[in-house]
Amino acid sequence: MADLRALFSSNNPAFDAAEAFTDRQHQWALVASALEEHLRHTAGRGFDVEDLEAPRSNVIVFHGVGGVGKSTLLRKIEAALTAAEHRPDQWGAPTWTQQLLPIRIDLARSASTGSDFERVILTIRLALAGALGRTLPSFDVALRHYWEHVHPGEPLDEYIRRTGLTGRFAEMLPQQLQAGVGEVAAALALPGLVGSAAGQLTSALVSALRERQARAQALAGAVRTAALLEATPDLEALSYYPHLLAWDLSRLPAKKRLTPVVLLDTFEDTGDRHRDFERLLQRLVWLMPNTFFVIGGRSRLPWADTALHGQLDWTGPAAWPGLVTSSAAAVVPQPRAAVPAGRQHLIGDLSPEDCDAHLARRLTLDGQPVIDADIRAAITARSHGLPLHLDLAVSRFLEIRRTGHTSTPADFDCTFPALLARTLSDLTPDERHLLRSVSLLDAFDLDLATQTAGLTRQAPARRLTERPLVTENLYALWPYHLHRAIRSAVRDDDHSDDRWTDADWHQAATRALAALGDQWTNAAALAPSRMLLVACLRQGLRLARDHNLTGLGWLTEAAFVYTDDSVWEPLALPTPTDPAPDTPADAVAELLTAIARRQREHRQRTADRLTAVLDAGLLPAELTEMALYYRAKAHKDLSQNDAARAGMQQVADADGRLALKARRGLANLARLAGDFPTALAAVPTLGWKGRHHRVLGDIHWSHADTAQAINAFEAGRAEAEQHGAVGERAMTQVRLALALSFADPARAGDELALAHQLLDGLDQRSNTLLAQVVALIKDAGTDGITDRAQGLHTDIEAAGLPFLHRFVELALAFHHAVRGEDQDMAATISRLRELTAIGDFAYFTDIAHFMAALPLPEPSTTRWTKDEDDVRSAWRGLVQARQEHLLAGN
């Protein structure tokens, strides 16, 4: 159909402007027109319900992306066909007088199984049971035969109740099936078969039909009835029984005659790789040509595509001329009877491919798109698939063209006031207010929307969520989100009469931030949820940053909870236009982003970002300590230990919330410098918050005191589990596997497997790499260790975690000592000496000498907690134990 507005926007009469989008009134008109056509066709003299070769015109399809009104449309159509009072006035009265029976079936839970197809068949038959109040003998005998074969011992009425197929006609169907059996038995003059097994009655009926007994043929005499009843009554046979149902409906008395209108909703959920369930449903449509089908789904129905030949029973444009897309319309052969095309209609959002296809077809000249590909791509991206946006963009294209200018993609980086005007036109004042309020939120629930809008009741929010401009995801933390194109239009509104001022937006953002804080605080008091914490932080930080909110409130506490357990989910905040923070909210957002991103960025980048945040001077005191602490950790990972000690000391001296962690950091730095007594002395002051067990375990394994290290790490893991600290549990587990990897490779393998399981999803990059080092140590003495170590060095360098290079070299030292590879050992010790030249981890060089029973070239600077000879003996003992283990294995 021509788009007259586009057609009259140019002086070029060669323009072909095709209309692409319609409103609900027009969609009803499409249904009404197609249904009228169907009723005329089935009432014609040439119509034969048993003709299996004629093309089918008994289907219309509405397709589009999810959550934009397809189900609503089908429900409205169902209501309009049920009773005139449910039909909107603007839809107008239909012209038909025949009796219709609308039957809506939601296929949302279908999963390509036989039970789902049974539900479809039973739903249709249940609806007919109530509407007709009589048997459909041919189909009913077949259904009873199938039921007794496939569901032996399970009464049909019990199955109906169990599967939820209840309703006011649920009790009628089993009675009608029994009555149908009696009717057939009476027609065959075999009343004794009424209570017998269905197979006996079926055999008698088949014999009567084969013998052309008049009464049997009058009652169940479709040409293919006997063949269907003789077939094994399984799912395949059931999918052909609709042919009998269609024949029974065609034989109804004139006063009882009706036309079922079956509305199949959420059709996309029937699809699978092999189209098994879709094939059964296609048979239903094909074999019931006297029933009209309205199908709603996310994609067009591809039955007219020849590419599906072999996957479905009836394919191609000759079979389904009404389902042919415009690209194939020119090659549709003429069917035996004229069947109008155009039975597939887009509704709601479009995929990017569909957007581009529509824009290409909307304006053409000599068969070629008038809108260039780069402009179509820009429009598509900005539209987020909303058809109305595409429609308005075409008008803008023509408007620019009339001025004599050439359009560019930048001309379409905009929203359209008309889009918002149409969106707002049928909303109540409360809903308009709510729409603007929730446009601040990425996702929301009824409570969050109500509080953000400053309302005292949820009813307006509930009504808004029922509008097609809001999409619902029942499995999301907050189930609702506003269509992105509409959200952009609302936020950019400068034209509406009731548009908000900057102060209005600021107040709404303040309410939204407070509402998010209330949700998180209330949930944390009952059952802390990491998912909710991260979701609230993502939305809250963006609101505070984008609207320059000064009262950070709960965000400070949430920042500490977020960082406390070292899980590091990405906060994924949009990149600001100006990367330099200039408000407290900017600074907090950048602080947490830098801390989280350090698991995926080089540590030097982390240190630089945190330095920039600190230099801005915008953070509150508590969060300034956080920035100092994590910058010090980055300096430690970069082996810039003087800077790390200075930062940790500054945080410890402030005696704030991170003081214990800073003291732990100082204890670890003392250990790295080889000052084990100082590190050990700090342990009693640390407690759980200072992760005392982990610090103690690191001291013990460094002395080759495996038993003590295992005890410490196991106690730390148990304490982490007690506090629900999944990040700390994973870190402690990696270290437990590290301590075991030198002494007990078999158990180390089990503990390492658990470590990988606990690390999954935590994004702890340094611990993930350390776990790979543990695997090297566990396998020391076997082949391939050197090559694995080289690959690990590459990964460590890319991660910006140079301290881990020393661990890899220590693993190699253990490997070469076990194999007695003196030259390789000497090279490894040389590399370790270079890596520890600044003093940190110098005791690794000592340990390498101990492993190989080599004397130290000069007195060590390491201060052990026990006699050096005891440490030497312990490490050498681990090497000898591994050698014995490998010999025993051979």
Number of strands: 10
What is the total domain count? 5
Strand order of the largest sheet: 3-4-5-2-6
> Could you tell me the mean pLDDT?
83
In helices, the fraction of residues equals: 55-70%
% residues in beta strands: under 5%
The radius of gyration is: 37 Å
Given the helix and strand composition, which structural class is it? mainly alpha
Specify the biggest β-sheet: 5 strands, parallel
Indicate the topology.
Elements: H1 4-7, E1 16-17, H2 24-43, E2 59-63, H3 70-82, E3 100-106, H4 114-132, H5 137-150, H6 156-162, H7 172-187, H8 198-210, H9 214-220, H10 225-230, H11 235-238, H12 242-250, E4 259-265, H13 276-287, E5 292-297, E6 344-346, H14 352-362, E7 363-365, E8 368-369, H15 373-383, H16 387-402, H17 417-424, H18 429-438, H19 446-453, H20 459-465, E9 470-472, E10 480-482, H21 484-491, H22 502-526, H23 530-546, H24 554-564, H25 584-597, H26 603-616, H27 621-637, H28 641-654, H29 659-672, H30 676-682, H31 692-702, H32 706-722, H33 726-743, H34 745-759, H35 765-778, H36 785-799, H37 803-819, H38 822-835, H39 842-851, H40 868-889
Parallel strand pairs: 2-5, 2-6, 3-4, 4-5
Antiparallel strand pairs: 1-7, 7-8, 9-10
Helix pairs in contact: 5-7, 5-8, 5-12, 14-15, 15-16, 18-19, 18-20, 19-20, 19-22, 22-23, 23-24, 23-25, 25-26, 26-27, 27-28, 28-29, 29-30, 31-32, 31-33, 32-33, 33-34, 33-35, 34-35, 35-36, 35-37, 36-37, 37-38, 37-39, 37-40, 38-39, 39-40
